[in-house]
Amino acid sequence: MGLNNRPPGDLIVAIDAGNSKTDVAVVGGDGTVYGTARGGGFQPQTVGVERAVDALQSLVAEAAVDALQELYMPLFLDHFSACLANADFPEEEELLAAEITRRNRSGNSTDPGPTVEVANDTFALLRAGLPDEGEPTGVAVVCGAGINCSGLAPGGRSARFASVGRISGDWGGGGHLAEEALWWAARAEDGRGEATALARELPAHFGLSSMLELIEALHLGRIGRERCHELSPLLFAVATSGDAVARAIVERQAEEIVAMAAAALGRLGLLDAPVPVILGGGVLTARHPLLHDRVVELLAGRAPRAVPQVVTAPPVLGAALLGLDRAAAPPAAYARLRAHYARA
Q1: Among 68, 73, 116, 315, which has the highest number of CB atoms less than 10 A from its own CB?
Q2: φ and ψ at 108, to 5 degrees?
Q3: d(CA 56, CA 75)
Q4: Residue 6 DSSP symbol
Q5: What distance, in Å, lies between the first and last C-alpha atoms of the chain?
Q6: Alpha-carbon gap, residue 35 to 320, rounded angstroms
Q7: Of 9, 13, 16, 10, nearest in space to 26 by CA
Q8: CB 138 within 8 A of CB 274
Q9: Is the distance from CB of 114 to CB of 75 less than 8 angstroms?
């Protein structure tokens, strides 16, 4: 493509930044994906907003370089569609949008630079699972490293949750499940709680013989706390074997997922409507039968006409679709973009 052959429509930077990983894509207005990049989680509450956005900007630069290899032309980015974890309140969305805008100004006082829209990352999953025509209507629950939910109804009405931990009533997600497994295993070994195979299987995963050894290793840093995420799949394996304690944890997770979905549907007046309930995030896309089947069963009791739908496409697709929505892209652009991620 020559220097004067700019791709049709806006060039969109689509960002899905979750707790554990970040995906960036440079997408043309015709739905063509020109460049991509992937990096670590987005945690401004831990490292600070400036450092978090600096890391994000590095990935944007990487995706832009990738796009340049395809376009062979100067790259002028028109719009950022950023769906970010830990953007839980309007004030946080505004602050993050301002930081992204500041880093992408051209330096020319007559050029304000690209437009920037920031939303919570749950809206990326929601958009990825919704059809491309008609008013967006439905609810999405993300259960990955953490748990969160959002929903949309006709007229632009929305429902969302603060999702900042126990102070906002949250329960669940991979990190929380690992903590629950450790809690119950520790109490089983020292006699404070019910017997559970978790007390044997969790330390064995790290080559240790007891929960006391595992607790000591975690406390003294011989095993990094970041490795606790390895325990969530183990919890499901123990639950599948019939362990009562592990099964109860999985049951609680299913209840929490449905509680969020039903609350969002209720706030939007959609409890009796045939709308999608989109399920995503690593814990849900694994489709563990104990969890998935129980979620479907409980949801049918709370919202009988809701349609549960597991979305395995990367949520950056949803961020890019939101960018196409803003640009009023033609139907062919949506089809091309979805086909790209279906192949991926």
Answers
A1: 315
A2: -90, 120
A3: 18
A4: P
A5: 24
A6: 12
A7: 13
A8: no
A9: no
Could you give the 3-state DSSP secondary structure of residue 55? helix
Tokens of 20: 């554990």
Between the CA atoms of 230, 231, 237 and 242, what dihedral angle is there, to the nearest 10 degrees?
180
DSSP structure string for 253-316: HHHHHHHHHHHHHHHTT-TTS--EEEEESHHHHTT-HHHHHHHHHHHHHH-TT-EEEE--S-TH
Residues whose CB is less than 8 angstroms from the CB of residue 192 and which lie 6 or more positions away in sequence, other chains included: none
Burial 56-85 (b: 16+ CB within 10 A, else e): bbebbebbbebbeeebeeeeebbbbbbbbb
Helix axes 231-240, 174-190, angle to 10 degrees: 60
Q: How far apart are CA 45 and CA 273, in angstroms?
A: 37
CA angle 241, 243, 246 (to 5 degrees): 110
**What single letter denotes the amino acid at residue 160?**
R
Identity of residue 216: E
Q: Measuring CA to CA, which residue among 210, 164, 219 is closest to residue 188?
A: 210
CA–CA distance, 282 with 237 (Å, rounded to integer): 15
Cα–Cα distance for residue pair 271/261, rounded to 1 Å: 9
- Tokens (6 digits) for 134: 């008609």
